[in-house]
Amino acid sequence: MTSRDDRIEGVLLATAAGDALGAPYEFQPPRGPELDVVMAGGGPWEPGEWTDDTAMAIAIAEVAATGADLRDETAQDAIVARWRAWSRGAKDVGIQTGSVLRSATIGDVITAERARAAAEHLHRQSGRSAGNGSLMRTAPVALAYLDDEEAMAQAARSLSALTHYDPEAGDACVLWCSAIRHAVLTGELDARVGLSHLDPQTHGVWADRLDVAEASRPADFPNNGWVVSALQAALSAIATTPVFSDDPASGVFRADHLRLALDAAVRAGFDTDTVAAIAGGLLGAAHGASAVPLEWRAQLHGWPGASARDLTTMARLIARGGKPDRFDPRYPGYRVGALAAHPFDDRVLLGGIGALRDLPDGVDAVVSLCRIGDDDVRRDIPHVEVRLIDRPDSDDNPHLEFVLLEAVKAVERFRRDGRTVLVHCVEALSRTPSVGALYGARLQGVSADEALRAVQGALPSASPNPAFREALRRLMPNEF
After folding, report:
1. Cβ contacts of residue 332 below 8 Å, gap of 6+?
2. Containing H/E element for 191?
3. Kind of pairing, strands 421-424 and 365-368?
4. Domain spans of the chain?
5. Cis bond before residue 304 (omega within 30° of 0)
6. Which of these, 55, 65, 97, 387, could form a disulfide with 317 (CB 3.0-4.6 Å)?
């Protein structure tokens, strides 16, 4: 699992995070700094529930995850059929999208050909079809064509036209998919990399629009139901939010850019879930899934009964072209049975993956620090998964200190709720004692060094790798 894998996982995850964050504030005016923006739910939406933005993206992602070429008619037939099935029980469907799906359905059958025809008819009848509904769902297209930029541009425009005939909607999808693809491949944010895929006559128009977005506030684009303003508001939120240098001792991290930019996107007002979902796709591609706060990740859910874990799994499958994952969740050959109580808090248990599979009595929350298989996911109690790679190469953990602190904060939240927590990795050798030491240091006000020695007393084989030890020192420099 490399940093590029992290960025792949971040695309759908951060799309959903922005969507769920913005859902309670939809149709409200710009939100001032004195008001909170929290993933609290509201209206028909439960806390952490995503809306039609992510649901429609998932329908595309499901087809892309089979390895299908999204430009093919059969793939697009499958996508519109999935949209139609979703729309029948959806809490919210965009007016334009719903009209196209209904018009394109004859009997109980919908086809991509009829959807395109219905979208064109709607456009010619009303003269308006450049809503943001195709841009909000476009992120998975970028993942499907990481190795073929031209094919990606074609697919983005073609899928946009299934419901949004206006070329401006297609242009926006091409630009945003290009930026997402570039961010996944390089870690860089650049909204202009896709300009070459546009008609030369519109190239300059869009370049000017991007310039304006980066020099403006998100709230300066109030008509963000229009695809151009939605893209500009999302880009403005990203571009005008500062990217901090990591300062672990002060609790400031580069990864905070994702959270703060999504906050800014929601504060733009009006179509808040869509603007934040659009921004989330690009932010996740640049910063990775590891930059998405665990508190958000634990809450995320939505159609079709999916979780944050399902989104990251689907993203990896798309990037592999539908090929099977070689990961073996059994961890053959590893010592998986370690288990000990935390020396400073006996309701925090530190262990290997064997403890997850044979959960000790009384444990009612789990923090997993290693990759686990589907059969190991606890669905009866709160269970958060942390992306922490046990290798000293810093490129594998692009937000190491942030992630360590996020893991500890998850433990602290569970303990405040009165829960008994299992913290585990595979063997409890490196990741688990690192998180255990940081938890103990924060709990008791002792140095991380002292806390680690205490943890090693409980887990004699524990020996965090050098990168983790240095991260602890950076998080608590005055303690050493």
Report:
1. none
2. none
3. parallel
4. 3-319, 339-479
5. yes
6. 65
Residue 479: left (phi > 0), alpha (psi -120 to 50), or beta? alpha
pLDDT over 70, % of the chain: 99
The one-letter amino acid code at 405 reads L
Q: What is the distance between the alpha carbons of residues 460 and 456, in angstroms, rounded to a whole number?
A: 5
What local confidence, expressed as pLDDT, does residue 217 receive?
A: 98
> Do 390 and 336 meet the contact criterion of CB atoms below 8 Å apart?
no
The residue to which tokens 């196209």 are assigned = 100
Task: Check residue 479 and give its pLDDT.
Answer: 44
What kind and span of H or E run contains 222? none
DSSP per residue over 36-73, as a string? ---S--BTTBPTTB--HHHHHHHHHHHHHTTT--TTSH
C-alpha angle 176-177-179 in degrees, rounded to nearest 5:
65
What sign does the CA torsion over 277, 283, 284, 285 have?
A: positive
Which residue matches tokens 């450049």? 130
Q: Which of 128-132, 145-149, 300-304 has the lowest mean pLDDT?
A: 128-132
Q: Which CATH number fits domain 3-319: 3.30.365.10, 1.10.4080.10, 3.40.50.1820, 1.10.10.10?
A: 1.10.4080.10
pLDDT tens-place string over residues 156-198: 999 999 999 999 999 999 999 999 999 999 999 999 999 999 9
pLDDT in tens, 348-379: 999 999 999 999 999 999 999 999 999 999 99
Which of 85, 81, 76, 20 is CA-nearest to residue 53? 20
Give the type of residue at 222.
Answer: P
> Would you state the torsion angle of the CA atoms of residues 311, 9, 330, 467, taken in this order, to the nearest 10 degrees?
-140
Q: Where are the beta strands (DSSP E) in 66-143?
A: 105-106, 109-110
Mean pLDDT lowest among 55-69, 310-324, 392-406? 392-406
Q: For 308, what's the count of Cα atoms within 13 Å in the CB-facing half-sphere?
A: 24
Determine the residue type at 465: N
Helix%, strand%, coil% for the chain, nearest 5: 55, 10, 35
Query: What is the C-alpha separation between 207 and 220, in angstroms, rounded?
Result: 18
Q: Which of 383, 397, 323, 326 is nearest to 353 (CA)?
A: 383
Average pLDDT, the chain: 96
CATH superfamily of 339-479: Protein tyrosine phosphatase superfamily (3.90.190.10)
Angle between helices 52-64 and 272-287 in degrees, nearest 10: 40
Rounded distance, CA 159 to CA 173, Å? 9
